[in-house]
Write a structure and sequence with these properties.
Layout: H1 2-10, E1 21-25, H2 32-48, E2 54-58, E3 63-66, E4 83-85, E5 92-95, E6 99-105, H3 115-131, E7 138-140, E8 143-149, E9 158-169, E10 172-180, E11 200-201, H4 213-228, E12 231-233
Parallel strand pairs: 1-2, 1-12, 3-4, 9-11
Antiparallel strand pairs: 2-6, 3-5, 6-10, 7-8, 8-9, 9-10
Helix pairs in contact: 3-4
Length: 234
């Protein structure tokens, strides 16, 4: 598995496409139901060739989402925040203010039609973004997402700093990733995040990085262009 991942990472150039991707940032929090409807509409338009690819950066009000592999037992506080069933892969996740969501709508027909390579590209995007703030993100074969080591909390302690969950329709991707900038980490206690109970959750600010959302967006944009090619602001 490790060798396969290395091969995928070495082939990331195949993810580039010649046309710039639209890059959109929503300043106000976006309701989850509205975001999903917008993603599905845009993904269909991309598949039909009537719209450009899009990366949409936003925040959500506090909520939990349940992916296609979610276990009901992992929802520890059902009445705390709204819970949205979603068609993306994965289990339970939390979204809320202080967390940067990147919804990635790309046409993989133009980018190699390799889902594993696309996921490896998203992982590289997150790792390179964190590296801009001297935070070392790592991938684990038995856990989804991007993790940071916390030796100050215990020899084997690792905390999750970013999550991934994608869906494809007609080779167009939607949903995407989230990076914890400065969310209320206590809000994660209402679920077992991504089904992993033996590790914690952290954020850039929790790790001591003096980062603003604008800083994070700049780093995300630079890393995205390295992995997937040029973007054009909306």
């Amino acid at each position: 598995m490790v060798k396969l991942r290395e091969q995928l990472l070495n082939g990331l150039q195949a993810l580039h496409a010649p046309a710039p991707v639209e890059w959109r940032i929503s300043e106000a929090p976006v309701e989850y139901v509205h975001a999903v409807a917008e993603m599905e509409h845009r993904a269909e338009a991309i598949a039909q060739g009537s719209a450009r690819e899009l990366v949409w950066l936003l925040e959500h009000p506090p909520l939990y989402t349940a992916g296609t592999s979610a276990d009901a037992a992992d929802l520890l506080e059902p009445g705390r925040f709204p819970v949205h069933a979603t068609g993306r892969g994965g289990q339970y996740t939390y979204h809320g203010p202080g967390q940067r969501i990147a919804y990635v709508m790309l046409n993989l027909r133009q980018r190699g039609q390799d889902v594993r390579l696309f996921v490896a590209g998203l992982e590289r995007l997150i790792i390179d973004t964190l590296d801009a703030f001297n935070v070392t993100g790592e991938i684990r074969e038995d856990r989804v997402g991007v993790w940071v080591r916390r030796p100050e909390l215990g020899a084997s302690r690792e905390d999750k700093i970013a999550a991934l969950g994608i869906r494809l329709r007609r080779w167009v991707t939607f949903h995407g990733l989230s990076i914890n900038l400065e969310p209320n980490l206590e809000h994660f206690s209402g679920i077992v995040p991504c089904g992993v109970s033996e590790h914690g959750v952290t954020s850039l600010v929790d790790l001591g990085a003096p980062v603003t959302m604008a800083d994070l967006d700049i780093a995300l944009k630079s890393a995205f262009e390295d992995v997937f090619g040029p973007v054009q602001a909306h």
